[in-house]
Specification:
Elements: E1 11-13, E2 18-22, H1 37-44, H2 52-65, E3 67-75, E4 78-87, E5 94-96, H3 106-120, E6 125-132, H4 136-144, E7 148-152, E8 156-162
Antiparallel strand pairs: 1-2, 2-3, 3-4, 4-5, 6-8, 7-8
Length: 163
């Protein structure tokens, strides 16, 4: 489900090897991302590994909240999912689930595309509900795109970008 009253694109092409593909209810391949303790700690602030039921619940929630996409990279002529991102004005959760692709600028490209989407839709701002203090990569990524902390949380801060 997209944002009410707004048509969600089936694909957002980021560059020649990177795209976002609209969530279509299939997610079994993503369980391995959320079975990685380090990934779960960056996402949830604890190391409780996901079950298939928990993963389903998360994706249902995100899909109902905004535009849920899988991040896909072109390898050997086929797009492979490597993470997920959800776009809505009140939060912008992104996970590069496959650790081999972290630190390569992919997150910055995805966030840049989400900023463009927000501007196209006439949004005045975008928010990130929380980035944990220990998630330096995410904090640096969002700050490099112009997001600024506006409120401290127990474990980190909330971020805002004025469009």
């Amino acid at each position: 489900m997209a944002i009410q009253g707004i048509k969600q694109p089936a694909v957002i092409q980021i560059d020649e090897t990177l795209r976002l593909r609209k969530y279509h209810g299939l997610y079994h391949f993503a369980l391995k991302w959320y079975q990685n303790e380090d990934t779960v700690y960056l996402v949830d602030g604890k190391r409780d590994l996901y079950t298939m039921e928990r993963l389903q619940g998360m994706y249902e929630y995100l899909n109902n909240a905004g535009e849920l996409y899988f991040i896909e990279i072109l390898e050997n002529g086929t797009y492979q999912p490597i993470g997920d991102v959800t776009f809505w004005q009140e939060d912008l959760p992104i996970v590069i689930g496959d650790p081999r692709y972290r630190g390569r600028g992919i997150g910055r490209k995805i966030i840049s595309a989400m900023i463009r989407r927000g501007r196209e839709l006439g949004f005045g701002h975008l928010l990130v509900n929380e980035i944990y203090n220990w998630n330096e990569g995410s904090r640096r990524c969002f700050e490099s795109m112009g997001f600024r902390a506006y409120e401290k949380t127990v474990k980190g801060a909330r971020y805002r970008l004025t469009l």
